Amino acid sequence: MNWPTFIVQWLHVLMGIVWFGYALSMYFLIAPPLSKLPEGQQREAFGLLAEIGPKVFPIVAILVIVLGFVRGTFLGRINELSDLGTPYGFYWLIGLLGTLALLFTGARFIGPGFAGLRDAPDYPAAAARLRAVSRIDLGIFFVVFTSMILMRLNN
Q: Which of 14, 67, 69, 94 could serve as 147's disulfide partner, Cβ 3.0–4.6 Å?
């Protein structure tokens, strides 16, 4: 067994599960019941949840990106730019670009959107914007997840 590859792959997948799992859980399991609470309680609950993100997800996102890059290049099949023209390289690049987009949307919209719910002057509008951006993020996550599966099938 190639232990460095195993460890990098394991950590990459684990960090991806943490990130994608949190997004899925928030959108489908946590936010819907919290949205039934009175507005003041929603503001407090989402504000508390917003305190977690800046502590956890910059680290998780960077690890996903760095480990995925290492796994695909130094420990994988991407050794030169022409390798991006292979099916494996194409799906790897889609995954990388999608993950970078998720890092951007999380830092620019999702994190600040959650934090802003606590003091938003128009709470319903702020919550609706956050849901809309979250749907876009989930779409990007599904593209990245699908790319990772297709990459492995074209290995």
A: 94
Report pLDDT digits (tens) over 129-147: 999 999 999 999 999 999 9
Structure tokens at 124: 């319903």
DSSP code, position 83:
G
- Whether the model clears a pTM of 0.85, i.e. scores above it, the answer is yes
**Token digits for 44?**
């407090």
Contacts of 133 (CB under 8 A, 6+ apart): 105, 109, 110, 113
CA 145 distance to own-chain centroid: 10
Alpha helices in 25-110 (DSSP H): 31-34, 39-72, 87-105
